[in-house]
Design goal:
Blueprint: E1 4-7, E2 12-16, E3 21-26, E4 32-38, H1 43-48, E5 83-86, E6 96-105, E7 111-119, E8 124-133, E9 136-147, E10 156-161, E11 164-167, E12 175-180, E13 188-193, E14 197-203, E15 215-219, E16 229-235, E17 241-247, E18 253-259, E19 266-268, E20 273-275, E21 279-285, H2 287-302, E22 314-316, H3 318-321, H4 327-339, E23 344-347, H5 377-385, E24 389-394, E25 398-399, H6 404-408, E26 428-429, H7 435-451, E27 456-459, H8 480-498, E28 503-506, H9 516-519, E29 524-526, H10 533-543, E30 552-556, H11 570-577, E31 581-584, H12 593-615, E32 617-621, E33 629-635, E34 641-648, E35 670-673, E36 679-681, H13 682-687, E37 700-708
Helix pairs in contact: 4-5, 7-8, 10-11, 11-12
Length: 711
């Protein structure tokens, strides 16, 4: 079956992946309807849907509400509208008419359908783009709004331009899955019945945010980890965003996602266009686990810049030194880290300008001459001699008022002349939407990377926008909300093109900038500033709903934990972090000789299964009635080996741990435990489970590596 099929007679398009179809229909009023989103349909089957009886009309309700794929404000439609504009004469309604369509075949695989609409009266066109691939059920969508008039027509104000409105089938009941959180408590999974009306998830902060994440999943309330259908979507945008889940009294449900937030608008002058970010959506069978694996594979295959590259074990110096940084101390830490098997040494905040505390120096990206009298070279050379890569912390989008940069260019920050400049963490936000600021920042970072053999940047962004003004903007100042992010993307793209070996981690006070947009340009993310292993079990569980372990930075830090004050055994801390990109962030100067020796063993254990964790298929294993046991299985793509990480937070009443049923193994095969040598039948592991040998203490853990025997 072709990925895009068209029936001109019925004005029907069927967009299909391996296991699903999304069907579009243009009705007699040129309204684009979402006719079907679910199992694969042929053109003939899709056309038969048009013969089904239409719902009865009710007073004050347009039956099109909740069914429109291009959902514009106008007429008797009062439900959520994904596209809202205001014309110079005050008219707000849109009356789009289809001008034409085209199908574009991409050289890297898949096809793209473009439907072009024009308002019946005003000079505005709206192109709807749909990209499908034959290897995945993820559909990528965006809009392009274009002012086609002349100077006499005046500007068009875009009030809202959601990238996609996804029309769901009738399910009877609807449940919404999302993640919620705050600083140091990000990506905690939350499932709730979808209420009637409009439920909006959003960030108004200028960045993705800790409080929510731009994705959602819908099911009928009966789906579990392994059974049932899931409809999901995710927005690829790293600025302010909003995702609206709408449930109408007619039991029609839509998901609509896009950039921006109220009351920010965009002005389109004649000849200008606005392209929205990608919004991806997918229908899957096989429960939430299958939905997650589909998204994980999409990120690995079509989002990340280096998807097949194994991320190194890193050490970060922050918790050992904080701002008390100098070259000899960093070298001593690097030497200790190398003995543990660390592959990437990252020096954190405090190396530059007058940065001896958090109130000075941001923006002055040159090494502190007292702390690094010969520059960064001696430290970098020693790190490389030890066989490790060298990484450096930067926060390029911020500036301290106490800095040479701010004293020279106070106009470069977001501000309104009539308002106080709110400082948070003693810093202000540089207006990266300004071309001169973006150009200056690229020059500084390019010079920093060029003059030093820097392999990795930990790119931080520690505060949201406030007083988001641009007093001397030549055009619409509200565009800074979009152009800041676009210039950030362009800066990252240019820096990576200039330095192909450079790898970048996205950080924003932990997980404050995590989305498919930033992942297109970075290699991993810092998941949370909270490194408490017990809390991270929940944080990482929610993270895994959409994002793969390949991008999830996870550190082992000191005990008691610096943030929560809670203690946990070293093995438990390591094995919790092994479920992602393993890092170490503790003060190695205080670790005992036995802890250092054990850490080296655990790092070696991780390296033996790293290819499974970072590139394999992830299965979240559930044991009914045991909420204290958390386990995850990583299976090689060829099915020949798997790793199981089991974590038991506490043990009650002396009960023994149940065997852990595994997933997706060959029932006819045998699997050998590479540590104990025990051999297990695949059918038994699937039906009766893997016996666990966990210590009786709280915070018990194990890592099991199973290899399929040949012959």
């Amino acid at each position: 079956m072709p990925s895009i099929a068209h029936d001109p007679a019925h004005r029907l398009w069927v967009l299909s992946g391996p296991g699903s179809s999304y069907v579009l229909h243009l009705d007699d009023d040129h309204r684009l309807r979402g006719l079907h989103w679910g199992p694969v349909l042929t053109l003939e089957q899709a056309a038969s849907l048009l013969q089904r009886p239409a719902p009865g009309r009710r007073s004050f309700e347009d039956p099109a509400d909740g069914t429109l794929d291009l959902d514009t404000a106008g007429a008797m439609r009062y439900a959520h509208a994904g596209v809202q504009v205001r014309f110079p004469d005050g008219v707000r309604d849109l009356e789009p008419r289809l001008l034409g369509y085209e199908q574009i075949d991409h050289p890297d695989g898949g096809s793209e359908l473009v439907l072009r609409f024009a308002d019946r009266r005003y000079p505005l066109t709206v192109d709807t783009h749909y990209r499908v691939r034959t290897t995945t059920d993820v559909i990528e969508r965006h809009l392009v709004l274009r002012h086609t008039g002349t100077e006499t027509d005046g500007p068009v104000t875009v009030v809202r331009a959601d990238s996609a409105t996804w029309v769901l089938p009738r399910l009877g009941e609807y449940r919404l899955s999302q993640v919620r959180g705050q600083w140091s408590a990000e990506t905690r999974l939350h499932r709730t019945a979808l209420p009637y009306g409009e439920l909006m998830l959003t960030s108004r902060r200028g960045t993705t945010g800790h409080q929510a994440n731009p994705w959602a999943m819908i099911d009928d309330g009966r789906t579990d980890e392994e059974h049932g259908a899931v409809w999901s979507c995710a927005l690829a945008w790293s600025g302010s965003w909003r995702l609206t889940a709408q449930r109408l009294p007619t039991e029609r449900v839509t998901l609509s996602a896009g950039f921006g937030h109220d009351p920010v608008t965009w002005e389109l002058a004649p000849g200008q266009e606005l392209t929205t970010p990608l919004c991806a959506g997918a229908y899957t069978e096989g429960g939430f686990g299958a939905a997650s694996r589909l998204w994980h594979r999409h990120v690995l295959d079509h989002v990340l810049p280096h998807p097949d590259e194994l991320r190194p074990v890193l050490y970060n110096s922050w918790e050992a030194t904080e701002f008390d940084i100098e070259v000899t101390g960093q070298i001593a830490l690097a030497e200790k880290a190398a003995k543990l098997g660390v592959e990437l040494f990252v020096m954190d905040d405090g190396w530059f300008g007058a940065r001896t505390h958090d109130a000075a120096g941001l923006g002055d990206w040159t090494p502190n001459p007292e702390r690094f009298p010969d520059g960064l070279g001696p430290l970098i050379d020693r790190v490389h001699e030890l066989g490790m890569q060298f990484g450096l912390w930067v926060e390029p989008e911020m500036v301290n008022p106490d800095s040479d940069l701010y004293r020279a260019r106070p106009d470069w920050v977001l501000h309104h002349p009539t308002r106080q400049r709110t400082e948070h963490r003693n810093q202000l936000v540089l207006n990266l939407a300004r071309p001169d600021v973006a150009a200056w920042l690229h020059g500084r970072l390019d010079e920093l990377v060029t003059k030093n053999e820097i392999d990795f940047l930990k790119w931080d962004m520690n505060r949201p926008f406030t007083e988001a003004g641009w007093p001397d903007a030549e055009a619409d100042p509200d565009r800074l909300w979009v152009d800041h992010v676009r210039n950030l993307y362009a800066l990252l793209d240019r820096l990576r093109a200039d330095h192909p070996g450079l790898r970048i981690e996205s950080c924003s006070s932990g997980g404050g900038r995590l989305d498919l947009g930033i992942l297109t340009r970075t290699d991993q993310v810092w998941t949370s500033d909270n490194t408490d292993a017990l809390d991270r079990v929940e944080i990482q569980h929610g993270f895994s709903q959409l994002y793969p372990a390949r991008v999830m930075g996870a550190w082992v830090t000191d005990s008691p934990n610096p943030y929560t004050g809670r203690s946990a055994p070293l093995d438990f801390r390591f094995r919790t972090a092994m479920a992602g990109v393993l890092g170490i962030g503790g003060d190695l100067n205080r670790w005992s000789a036995s802890d250092l020796a054990r850490a080296a063993e655990l790092v070696a254990d991780y390296k033996r299964v790293r290819h499974l964790v970072q590139l394999g298929e992830q299965y979240r294993l559930e044991v009914q009635g045991n909420g204290e046991l958390h386990a995850v299985q990583f299976l090689a793509p060829d099915g020949k080996e798997c790793a199981v990480i089991a974590l038991r937070r506490s043990r009650h009443f002396g009960h023994s741990d149940p065997a852990l049923p595994l997933r997706a193994l060959d029932p006819a095969a045998r699997y050998r435990d590479t540590t104990s040598g025990a051999v297990h039948h695949g059918a038994v592991l699937l039906s009766h489970g893997l016996p666990l040998d966990l210590a009786a203490d709280d915070c018990a853990s194990t890592l099991v590596h199973l290899v399929r025997e040949t012959g």
